[in-house]
Write a structure and sequence with these properties.
It is built from nine helices and eight strands. By secondary structure, the protein is of the alpha/beta class. The longest helix has 19 residues. 42% of the residues are buried. The structure holds 9-methylguanine.
């Protein structure tokens, strides 16, 4: 899953049209690099990011989704807002990436009344404050229980299990120790019986482990994606699609005997 940020570029003041052109060009590059899904987001989830209105988010993401209509890969809309979910699905999005795991009733209804797939992600707290004091007795079992409950809630609302993906939400209300425990025991989440998505790309836990600034986290991101796939993730949400795809091709050739037979 390639990440397409439809958020203003801090280095450009070319206005909405330039932003859209840049995001569309980036999306096409990610497809050429081997992305199987594109995740389009119009509101940053980083701590301290300014919240945006429904209209502002729609203005950012809809032209991108419309511009990608007819392309070969499914589009995911990264949003917590039910209005944005509905509009994006109408514009052609086939998946909703909700970091709030459809805990908002209107969001649950927006997905239930469509055929879209959904990613249910765990987070503790909200993006503004979540890194202040994350606390768990047992991070893996608590997140597993939360995701199990959200899968059941989605099914009860009429969203078939086949449409559901789960995600432990690396970095969302978790310390480095929590994130490492989750990655170490990621396989246990596959017991919930739905596909597992992992998003580790360029995250601060990788910075904490390597000492690298966000712009220098490609090698750590590729390593983390590979570990996640080895431990059961079937979708990895990444910025650097080509490097990740290359690494996964090697892993796949060794593990699934897709390469030359010796
Ligand atoms: C929007 N977003 C940022 N990080 C993410 C992650 O790890 N998973 C998902 N599903 N979405 C994310």
């Amino acid at each position: 899953m390639g990440i397409v940020n439809a958020t203003p570029d801090s280095f450009s003041d070319g206005g909405l049209y330039l932003q859209h052109d840049n995001a569309l060009a980036h999306a096409h590059q990610l497809i050429a690099d081997g992305a199987d899904i594109l995740d389009i987001g119009g509101e940053s989830t980083r701590p301290g990011a300014r919240p945006v209105s429904v209209q502002e988010e729609l203005d950012r993401v809809l032209p991108i989704i419309e511009g990608l209509r007819g392309t070969s890969v499914p589009i995911s809309i990264d949003t917590v807002k039910p209005e944005v979910m509905r509009a994006a699905i109408n514009a052609g999005a086939q998946m909703v990436n909700d970091i709030n795991a459809l805990q908002d009733t209107a969001a649950m209804e927006a997905v239930a009344s469509s055929n879209a797939a959904v990613c249910l992600m765990h987070k503790q707290g909200d993006p503004q404050t979540m890194q202040q004091q994350p606390h768990y007795k047992n991070v893996v079992s608590e997140i597993s229980a939360f995701l199990r409950e959200r899968i059941a809630a989605a099914e009860a609302a009429g969203i078939q299990r086949e449409r559901v993906v789960i995600d432990p939400g690396f970095g969302f209300g978790k310390t480095l120790a929590h994130n490492l425990a989750l990655l170490r025991q990621l396989k246990s989440l596959t017991e919930l019986g739905v596909p597992l998505l992992a998003g580790l790309s360029r995250k601060s836990m990788l910075g904490a482990l390597t000492g690298q600034d966000v712009s220098q986290r490609l090698p750590a991101s590729v390593a983390a994606a590979l570990i996640a796939v080895q431990r059961g993730a079937t979708i990895v949400r990444v910025h650097d699609v080509r490097a990740t795809v290359d690494a996964l091709k090697i892993w796949d050739a060794v593990n699934n005997m897709n390469g030359a037979q010796g």
